[in-house]
Specification:
The chain is an alpha/beta fold and about 500 residues long. The chain contains 16 helices and 17 strands. The strands form two sheets. The protein has an eleven-stranded mixed sheet with strand order 1-8-17-16-15-14-13-12-9-10-11, sandwiched between helices. The chain has a six-stranded parallel sheet with strand order 3-2-4-5-6-7.
Amino acid sequence: MSRLLNSAQLRLVEQQARAAPPSLMERAGQQAANWIIENHPHISRILILAGPGNNGGDGLILARVLLEKQIYTKALPAYPSLSFSNEAAKALRQLPDTATLATLDPEDLDHYELIIDALFGIGLARPLDTTCASLSTMLATSGKPVIALDVPSGINADTGSADPHAICAAATLTFIADKPGLHTGAAVDYCGEIHCLDLGLPETALPASTTHLIDAARISTAASSLRRMRDSHKGRHGTVQVVGGNDGMQGAGLLAARAALHAGAGKVRLLQLANQPPGIDPLYPEIMCHAWTDGQPFMSDVSHRVIGPGMGCDSRSRALLADLLSSPEPAVIDADALNLIAQNAELGHLLCQRDESASIITPHPLEGARLLGMSCHDVQLDRLHAAKMLSQKFNVVCVLKGAGTIIATPDGACHINSSGNAALASAGQGDILAGCIAALWAQGAAACEAACLAVYVHGKGADSWRAENPLGLGLDSGETLRRLRASLNQLT
């Protein structure tokens, strides 16, 4: 399981490691050079854009090491009028004058095969200025591949927010430890492939963290609880009840129920609020369909619920949600149920009163914004903070969906998903995810583990489909369900 460290934690690590030679800056330059040579053995002309701080110093040492290895390299000190940090100034003095550029014009980029972004690292706390904005535009226009050192300039390593002029990298060589902001929000479109270079620091030199990346190792541990004994029957694997499917939105409830079936729930029930719901799912008749008029929301065999897909926000739905929140069964709360809670303080109070291990909410950013009383823009500026606030405000496990979905728990822990892609940006995918979470939860995974596992296999299924469909257009629910099931079984 990959720990993710924020900038404050990393600065402490850097302070403690400064006394041991070689310097961290020297190690960063050396390891970056080794990585570039190993992964780009045929590239022979490299340009390094260096800022005035320590990130620029990393780049200038990289330039010196590449030159020592007989690779044609030029460095552009992008802010020559500013005072360089002591280490960066020393690294600049070590370069021959012929290795530095005074200016850079767009046509000059034609001479290089690879560009290194060493302008600003994790310490940038202001908008990018016109110098960096101009360089960013030049790079984007040139089409040249860019490798960022530590973080792409303009990306907030803690939050994942991106400056309008942030530099877009094909790969990011991040130093010491991985950072949360590289894996969520707008940043995911700027970082490319992320590779962590530890600079020779042992794991014991890094502090404990409450934020982790959901990777294959973490998922293997979570999936182990789902392995089935031969002496087994459906009653041992939970009964999931999906509550939703009001008039005009019956498909949402069906998708959640089908996902619970594909993710292994022993039995699946669908309680529909529509006036004339179908009595059977013709594609999956094993799903037991009931109408709300049957008066059967509290069936004795229900172990877990999904509440909200296509539920609607009318008074009848609101009254039913209040009853369901007052019952003890574990529940995944999604879609219209979240909108009703955002509209009604009493429903929010009922949610808070439930045991913290009994509720998982699955908002997309706009739903999260409604629940927090803020704008969607503000949620996206700091997704980790928003997920933590939602979890603690309502005493729940929160799954804040989006690029780099975040699972937060009331104790402040966060888990960021590493799978998935934009093919999932289509209607119905949230319903599928909610049903999958409930099914894994019902089969014995703890609430947070069920959420992490479901988010990962949902994204992994989309990744396998995207590998065959590069543009990512047209992923439908049926394909997602099949891929999700395959991804889950491959993990176990």
